[in-house]
Amino acid sequence: MPIHPYRRHRLFTLLDEEEEEDKKKQYRLVLRSAAFIPLLRRQQARSLSLDVLKRRTSTLLAIMLVVIIFFSYSAFAFTVSKLPETLSVSTPAPVPSTSATIPSMTVPPTTVPLTPIPTPTPSPIQRTLTSQQTQSQTVNATGQGTAPGTQAKGVLTLRNPYNGTPIGVDMTLNAGTVFDDDAGNSPNVQMMIDATVTVPGDGTHVTVPAHVVQIGTIGNISQIRGWTHYGTNQDPVPLDIDNSTPFTGGTDPQTYTTVQQSDIDTAANSLEATTQQSAVADIKSQLHSNEHLVGDPQCSFTVTSDYAAGDQANTVTVTVQTTCGATAST
What we know:
The protein is 31% helix and 27% strand. It is an alpha+beta fold. The strands form 4 sheets. A 6-stranded antiparallel sheet has the order 5-6-8-3-10-9, with no helix packed on it. A 3-stranded antiparallel sheet has the order 1-13-12, covered by helices on one side.
C-alpha cells in the first residue's frame, strides 16, 4: 500500500534528525578522544618502561642462575676428583639356609676387676730460707814482742889546745869517728860524730852533731855531769872534746804483749760453732708444718777483729758473722 506523502516527509525528517544527532555524538566523542590522547600516550610509555624493566630483570636473574649452576657444578666436580678413583664394595656371599638346632646355654656373668685410678701427686713447692747470726768475743793476747832501744843524741864541742906546737895544726875528722870517754867517768860510753868537721890548730872551738854508741838510757848524759875526752900530746888525735848540750833520747829495749793469729783463730772457731748452731735453729723454726729441709743448710763465715796478728795489744775482740741458707720443700 502506498505511503502518504506527509508521513513520508515526516519519516525523512525523523531520519535526518536522527542522523544529525548521531553526527553530533560522534563529534563530541572525537573531541573527548582528543583530550585524552596525551594521557593515553603517557600510560603507554609507562607500560612500555615497565615491560622493559621486567625484561631486564628476567635477563639478570637468568644470568645469575647460570653463574650459580656453574660454580655449584665446579665445586661438585672438585670434590669428586678428590675421592678415590675406585671404591670396592665387597658383596657378602649368600649364606645357605640350613636348619639346625642350637642347644640353649647359660653364660655365667663375667666379673671385671676395677683398677683404682691413682691420685696424682702434687708437685712440691720449694722456697729458700736464710738466717744471719753475729757474735763477738774478747780474749787475751798471748804473743810477745820486743821494742828495740834507741841511742841518745847531742852536740860535741872540739878544740885543739896545742896552738904553737908541732901538733897545733888543723885536723879534719870524718863522720863516724868514735871517741872514748875519759877513764874514771861513769857511765863510760863512746861518742860518734855524725858529720865531717875540721878543727883549727889555733885553738878555736867547733861543734859537730854526735850520738852515743851504746843503746839505751845510759847515753842520756846531762851537760852538768858532762862527757869529756881530753887528749894528750901523745894521742893520735890530741883534742879536747866535751858535750856542749845534753844528750837525750836514749831508751832501753822493752818487751810487750802482741796479738797472735792463734788468738784470733781460737776465738773465731768457737764463735763459728755457736753462730752456725743458732742460724740452723732459726732456719728450722721458719719451716711450715708441711715442709722439710732439702739437704743440710750451707753456711759461710766472715771473721773480723779489732787488732791484727802482730799488733801490740793486751786483748783482742773477734767478731764472726755467719750466714746460712737452706731449701724448704713441701
